[in-house]
């Protein structure tokens, strides 16, 4: 059984996203960690991403006028990165390197086609002429002559494997519509050349391969909508110089009259492959889909429609699919279980997740219903019913039509109905969503509500949208237009909730929320619905806008008490001026700003936006951050009370960001002078305090070591003196 699981956006692909992939994605390669991937664009830049956090860890770019001509890869043995720009110039660098002009450089004697990096075999370089070298051998003599093996042939695809301890490289070429396969074993420096069997109306468009038991299995995705299998033994046959490899049909990509025009595919395990392509049916527009097929039983296991379109590229690492969807790079997790007939026809029961199968009965669907089933984001996959179920065909068809009704069809039936009826229908649709595709189903409902608003702005379902976001675990990538519409309507409560619950909000949207929160005056905010849970425990504002301070005594310690002469001196030095004693913003604005502080972001991508913040609002935000910093420092555990309150690390990170973005402007403002002076004194006092703690750190560690060595068998009291 195979299933597509949750999905999320890794990054945007537009120039405005800051990732530098505006020219399109050249390739995606695994990084030094299983959770890292390397993205190379069709231009000058490469970016290292941590997939689980959807955040960049490193960003490198070659100079203007230079172009990366093959994907950047990681040397898994040295944790270095390897790039080739302008076909022949090799660059090698590490994580701490910033400027690629200053890293290792070598100019090669021939054009590089691609570099493949093997976990236990090191990087292997394939040249456009078919020559192959290990990176180590190439670095010994970068200008060594590279043989031209393939003459007028053009390399179409290549891959590298480890067979035992030996690196093996396979690549395919094309010449005059003939396709050839080359297998290079690097340790023995042996090269085998084969010719693919030609079939009429069956031209290979894409390849993938895997190796097992000294046999390479080459899979070909062909123009006749079929996948063929070719077996290539690694044992060299010296009798023939060029053998013809026969192709055997592995899979036909057609389902009940609909055909999948595949553009790329990957092998998942011995019985499953994933294919990305366009599903076409008679009299209907093609729809791009990601599908998983069982090659053993010739069945389509699951599919997901991609309405925003793709680039046709598909990558797969660590049980995750990576592909472009519209203007973003999307990640979808999947699972593949042991292949069995029950799983292939959708009859395998999952004890942990009852009825996770949402497959459509192929025997009861007509062509139109089949197309609708692909359209529906509730329908996670397709399943067969046995022939014995045909006698209940009518009832099954009625149930399928009711349970699998697409959101788009609901909208067509409810174009002009009142808001209450419209929302009731969507709630019913949500209640029928299968557990496996719940997130996608709710995302479809949110998209439907947003599209209705775009068609007619009077239909803004504020309460319903807020209820959905508060109830379900959604993400920005599932409903990317939601926060833009909320910003347009200045729906502060919805924006606040999204900031607290969405893990993948782009920095541009986060900044837009910050800007609109700071722009509201306090009188307007008092009349608005804002969640005050994050501030109600440490800030209260009376009608005259004066803060009522409520000190919390923790573990017998109060910030009002003085704990000694030197501690009193530090406290006096850290005493705030009148600008810092009171919260500079009201509780509503404070709660909204706290939501911004808690949202995830990348410093490199947020900083350019923060520089556009007006100076007056930047100073106000900085004063509030300093107020929170002081509040945290007053407590022994340096945490603010209340739910969803920002941590001291989040507060400090934002203070540093804001000072980096506006330091020159802030130091020139007369009204900020007193505030900056107070901040300087407070931070200086804290530095002195921690310096005193550092002085006794060694003594405390020694006492701890002595205490661990002793093992008193009876109760005892020890008096330890620190001199």
UniProtKB/TrEMBL annotation:
GO terms for cellular component: nucleolus. GO terms for molecular function: RNA binding. SUPFAM superfamilies: WD40 repeat-like. The keyword Nucleus applies. Residues 1-335 form the Nucleolar protein 11 N-terminal domain. InterPro entries: NOL11, Nol11_C, NOL11_N, WD40_repeat_dom_sf. Residues 423-721 form the Nucleolar protein 11 C-terminal domain. One of its GO terms (biological process) is maturation of SSU-rRNA. It is found in: Nucleus, Nucleolus. The keyword Coiled coil does not apply. Transmembrane segments: none annotated. Keywords: Activator, Nucleus, rRNA processing, Transcription, Transcription regulation. It holds the Pfam family Nol11_C. This is NOL11 protein. It comes from Ramphastos sulfuratus.
């Amino acid at each position: 059984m195979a299933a597509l699981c949750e999905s999320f956006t890794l990054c945007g692909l537009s120039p405005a996203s800051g990732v530098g992939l505006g020219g399109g994605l050249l390739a995606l390669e695994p990084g030094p960690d299983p959770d890292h991937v390397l993205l190379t664009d069709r231009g000058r830049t490469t970016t290292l991403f941590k997939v689980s956090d959807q955040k960049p860890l490193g960003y490198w770019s070659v100079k203007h006028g230079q172009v990366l001509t093959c994907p950047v890869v990681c040397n898994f043995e040295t944790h270095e990165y390897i790039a080739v720009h302008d076909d022949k110039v090799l660059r090698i660098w590490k994580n701490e390197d910033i400027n690629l002009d200053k890293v290792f450089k070598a100019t090669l004697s021939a054009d590089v086609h691609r570099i493949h990096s093997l976990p236990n075999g090191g990087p292997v370089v394939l040249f456009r002429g078919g020559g192959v070298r290990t990176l180590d051998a190439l670095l010994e003599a970068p200008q060594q002559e590279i043989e031209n093996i393939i003459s007028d042939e053009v390399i179409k695809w290549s891959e590298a494997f480890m067979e035992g301890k030996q690196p093996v490289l396979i690549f395919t070429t094309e010449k005059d519509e003939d396709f050839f396969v080359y297998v290079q074993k690097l340790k023995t420096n042996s090269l085998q050349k084969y010719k693919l069997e030609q079939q009429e109306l069956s031209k290979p468009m894409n390849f993938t391969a895997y190796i097992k038991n000294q046999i390479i299995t080459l899979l070909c995705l062909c123009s006749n909508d079929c996948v063929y299998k070719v077996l290539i033994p690694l044992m060299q046959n010296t009798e023939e110089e060029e053998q013809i490899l026969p192709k055997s049909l592995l899979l036909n990509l057609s389902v009940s009259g609909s055909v999948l025009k595949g553009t790329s595919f990957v092998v998942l395990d011995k019985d499953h492959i994933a294919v990305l392509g366009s599903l076409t049916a008679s009299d209907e527009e093609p729809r791009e889909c990601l599908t998983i097929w069982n090659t053993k039983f010739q069945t389509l296991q699951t599919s997901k429609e991609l309405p925003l379109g793709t680039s046709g590229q598909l990558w797969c690492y660590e049980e995750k699919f990576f592909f472009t969807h519209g203007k973003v790079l999307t990640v979808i997790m999947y699972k593949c279980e042991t292949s069995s007939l029950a799983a292939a026809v959708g009859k395998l029961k999952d004890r942990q997740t009852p009825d996770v199968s949402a497959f459509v009965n192929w025997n009861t669907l007509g062509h139109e219903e089949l197309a609708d089933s692909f359209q529906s984001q509730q329908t996670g996959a397709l399943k067969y019913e046995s022939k014995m179920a045909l006698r209940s065909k009518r009832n099954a068809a009625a149930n399928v039509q009711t349970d699998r009704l697409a959101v788009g069809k609901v909208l067509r039936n409810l174009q002009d109905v009142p808001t209450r009826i419209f929302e009731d229908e969507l709630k019913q649709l949500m209640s029928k969503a299968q557990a496996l595709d719940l997130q996608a189903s709710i995302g479809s409902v949110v998209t439907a509500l947003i599209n209705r608003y775009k068609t007619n702005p009077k239909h803004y379902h504020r309460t319903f949208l807020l209820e959905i976001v508060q109830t379900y675990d959604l993400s920005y990538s599932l409903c990317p237009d939601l926060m833009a519409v909320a910003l347009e309507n200045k729906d502060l409560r919805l924006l606040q909730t999204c900031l607290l619950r969405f893990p993948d909000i782009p920095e541009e949207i986060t900044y837009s929320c910050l800007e609109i929160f700071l722009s509201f005056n306090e009188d307007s905010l008092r009349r608005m619905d804002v969640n005050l849970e994050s501030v109600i425990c440490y800030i209260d504002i009376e009608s005259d806008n004066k803060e009522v301070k409520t000190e919390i005594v923790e573990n017998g310690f109060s910030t009002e008490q003085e704990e000694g002469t030197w501690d009193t001196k530090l406290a006096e030095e850290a005493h705030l001026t009148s600008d810092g004693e009171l919260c500079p913003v009201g509780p509503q604005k404070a709660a909204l700003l706290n939501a911004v502080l808690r949202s995830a972001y990348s410093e490199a991508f947020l900083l350019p936006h923060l520089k556009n913040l007006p100076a007056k609002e930047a100073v106000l935000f900085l004063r509030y951050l300093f107020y929170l910093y002081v509040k945290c420092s007053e407590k022994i555990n340096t945490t603010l009370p209340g739910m969803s309150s920002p941590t001291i690390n989040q507060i400090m990170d934002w203070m540093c960001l804001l000072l980096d973005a506006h330091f020159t402007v802030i130091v020139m403002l007369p009204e900020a002078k007193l505030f900056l002076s107070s901040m300087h004194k407070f931070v200086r006092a804290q530095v002195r305090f921690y310096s005193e703690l550092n002085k006794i750190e060694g003594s405390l560690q020694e006492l701890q070591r002595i205490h661990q060595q002793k093992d008193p068998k009876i109760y005892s009291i020890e008096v330890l003196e620190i001199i």
